[in-house]
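Whiteboard transcription, Tuesday session. T.W. wrote the structure tokens on the left side:
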């Protein structure tokens, strides 16, 4: 399945377990009899979780075909034919790989010559399963940062059970062993980042008062090898109200620079250049702009109108300026991209001498190549990019070459990976196999009209011979938040669990996302949040109007912010749907900012402690919109005990409230997995099988 970032509770959870809780915020008392379920590891809460898991397993795990479906999904996830994505580190190409033999995974490497082969020869660098057996842990891979130019030392991050909090350990890449007495960061949200062989930036939990209210680092320090972390020198200290403080070193030869990042909230940050003497100089660009520096260039991706140097540019524009000139006070910009009513910037990628733009035109990728020179920027089409499908690029080694990885996919076409070298046609290296039968299906794009007249795009994957009589089991997926765009992608799990069985699969590109740039996102912020839900409802109604499906046959799915989306569909538009799957969701919008990382999302949703803002937040808080006397479609809640980003209490409390009211509800909570829901392929396959079985059983039977 597809599953797409605190303050402490107001009262100790140990005092609330098993009893009604009363919350007081700004003089308002809120009674919540399910508050005890927020105690993540509490005995009472976990007893309830185990009982609900057993009930769900009995109902769905014993269903005909469940075991076969789970095994098939597991085989897809474990398949050796999946594309091993690689990152170039020095002369080698590294990949993290999980399969049936390596449940937790191995970090391995090969050469480009080997990688070109159908079955490359890999050298194992770190075996996570062996490490877990040796250390009696349940480590989940969180990545590695390796120090150039020698690439002999790496900072490896490992998470217990898949949580966002992790540890960082120094690894000797040449000897393939952990460095005794090397850099080590204890478990926390944060990171280490190389400055040079003997210095790192560290931003982590240094003790009481050193985290933000969102639970992220508030202080960044410079730490020298051979000294205790407690003696590391403070580089920058933010406030408790900030979201995240960090620092990083750009190691591009000839352009080495250090920066401090102060993230105040989503899309609100300050960037500081750190001079050799340690002095911080702010990059004087709008807080709302995405600011990035590479070689000579500063790029500003605007999210609000910007006036400087005698010019004004609209939100969604990408500007380029010489970094040193900008820091000296000059405001001379080149417009690299300007949006239109149907286009937005999906992203950009630097290579050694070129900038690759990825533009969305009505949710379709278009690539172009820009080359800065003495006379300005040359622009050319990207050679070899297909006209249709989701297209993405990544630099192979942006400091050494202009080579690119090119990824192409859609809902029915397995992902392909090609190597693009300037002046040569793309060299196809890898292709994912056909994991499900797709020959009888087509992909279409339609547009629904929302309640305020806005044109909302959505994709449909359907059988070619669909009868258009409203009987097709249909699953509608959405997200609608944080300026994230939903693009067509190939999923063997979706194909095997839904499409191949004859189901219609639809994806809604609603406001709140990034499909049309900042304006599309900002149209559904805070008091305007309901627009995203009106868009989703409009797509659901359009599917019915086209006679693709009917309410009894239409199911919906969403995770995280998408869980909030489908939670609102459940409580505000229950008559439109026949089944609802709610994954790792936000649901209690009165307490979301007091749970784990929730305080970091107030720029998106608002502050419930402000009475004026609570007035609009309460209109999209599913936990408060639920009515015991209303009729709701069958619902499945899924979350993870180890999710330290969106608190599992959201799903627990909503499910408990609905179950106690006698509604048709299933609940499943994985003990590991973090915000992704699962830590291993086996767990992912099991959770996917539960969700697909639930949806198919509810939507494919006789019409009620």
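and on the right, the sequence the group agreed on:
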């Amino acid at each position: 399945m597809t599953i797409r970032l605190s303050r402490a509770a107001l009262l100790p959870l140990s005092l609330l377990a098993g009893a009604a809780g009363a919350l007081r915020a700004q003089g308002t008392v809120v009674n919540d009899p399910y508050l005890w379920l927020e105690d993540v590891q509490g005995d009472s809460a976990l007893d309830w979780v185990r009982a609900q898991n057993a009930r769900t397993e009995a109902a769905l795990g014993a269903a005909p075909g469940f075991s076969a479906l789970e095994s098939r999904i597991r085989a897809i996830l474990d398949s050796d034919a999946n594309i091993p994505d690689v990152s170039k580190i020095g002369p080698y190409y590294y990949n993290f790989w999980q399969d049936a033999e390596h449940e937790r995974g191995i970090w391995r490497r090969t050469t480009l010559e080997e990688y070109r082969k159908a079955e490359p020869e890999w050298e194992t660098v770190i075996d996570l399963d062996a490490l877990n057996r040796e250390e009696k842990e349940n480590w989940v891979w969180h990545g590695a940062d390796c120090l150039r130019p020698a690439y002999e030392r790496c900072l490896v991050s490992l998470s217990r059970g898949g949580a966002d909090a992790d540890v960082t350990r120094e690894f000797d890449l040449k000897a393939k062993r952990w460095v005794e007495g090397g850099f080590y960061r204890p478990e926390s949200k944060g990171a280490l980042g190389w400055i040079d062989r003997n210095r790192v930036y560290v931003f982590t939990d240094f003790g009481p008062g050193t985290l933000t209210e969102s639970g992220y680092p508030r202080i960044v320090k410079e730490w020298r090898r051979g000294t205790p972390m407690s003696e590391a020198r403070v580089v920058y200290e933010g406030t408790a109200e900030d979201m995240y403080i960090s620092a990083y070193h750009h190691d591009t030869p000839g352009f080495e620079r250090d920066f401090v990042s102060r993230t105040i909230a989503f899309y609100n940050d300050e960037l500081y250049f750190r001079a050799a003497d340690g002095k911080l100089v702010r990059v004087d660009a709008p807080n709302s702009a995405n600011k990035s520096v590479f070689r000579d260039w500063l790029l500003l991706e605007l999210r609000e109108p910007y006036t400087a140097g005698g010019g004004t540019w609209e939100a969604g524009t990408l500007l380029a300026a010489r970094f040193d000139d900008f820091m000296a006070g000059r405001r001379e910009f080149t417009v690299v991209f300007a949006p239109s009513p149907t286009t937005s910037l999906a992203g950009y990628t630097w290579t050694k001498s070129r900038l690759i733009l990825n533009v969305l035109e009505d949710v379709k990728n278009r690539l172009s190549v820009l080359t800065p020179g003495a006379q300005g920027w040359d622009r050319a089409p990207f050679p070899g990019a297909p006209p249709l499908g989701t297209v993405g690029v990544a630099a192979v080694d942006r400091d050494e070459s202009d080579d690119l990885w090119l990824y192409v996919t859609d809902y029915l076409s397995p992902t392909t990976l090609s190597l693009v070298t300037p002046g040569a046609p793309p060299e196809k290296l890898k292709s994912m196999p056909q994991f499900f039968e797709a020959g009888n299906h087509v992909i279409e794009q339609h547009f629904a009209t929302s309640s305020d007249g806005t044109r909302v795009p959505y994709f449909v994957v359907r059988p070619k011979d669909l009868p258009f009589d409203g009987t097709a089991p249909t699953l509608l997926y959405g997200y609608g938040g944080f300026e994230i765009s939903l693009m067509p992608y190939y999923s063997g799990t979706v194909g095997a669990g839904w499409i191949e069985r004859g189901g219609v699969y639809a994806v809604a590109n609603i406001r709140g996302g990034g499909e049309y740039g900042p304006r599309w996102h900002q149209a559904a912020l805070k008091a305007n949040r309901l627009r995203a839900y009106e868009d989703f409802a409009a797509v659901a109604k359009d599917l019915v109007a086209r006679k693709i499906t009917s309410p009894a046959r239409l199911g919906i799915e969403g995770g995280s912010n998408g869980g909030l989306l489908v939670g609102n569909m459940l409580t505000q538009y229950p008559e439109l749907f026949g089944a609802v799957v709610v994954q790792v969701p936000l649901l209690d919008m009165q307490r979301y900012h007091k749970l784990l990382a929730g305080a970091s999302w107030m720029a998106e949703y608002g502050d419930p402690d402000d009475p004026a803002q609570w007035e609009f937040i309460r209109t999209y808080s599913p936990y408060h919109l639920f009515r015991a006397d209303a009729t709701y479609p069958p619902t499945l809640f899924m979350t993870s005990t180890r999710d330290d980003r969106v608190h599992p209490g959201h799903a627990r409390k909503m499910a408990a409230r609905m179950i106690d009211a006698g509604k048709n509800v299933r609940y499943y909570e994985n003990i590991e997995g973090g915000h992704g829901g699962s830590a291993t392929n086996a767990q992912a396959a099991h959770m996917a099988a539960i969700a697909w079985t639930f949806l198919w059983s509810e939507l494919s039977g006789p019409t009620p």
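Someone added at the bottom: The first strand starts at residue 21 and ends at 25.
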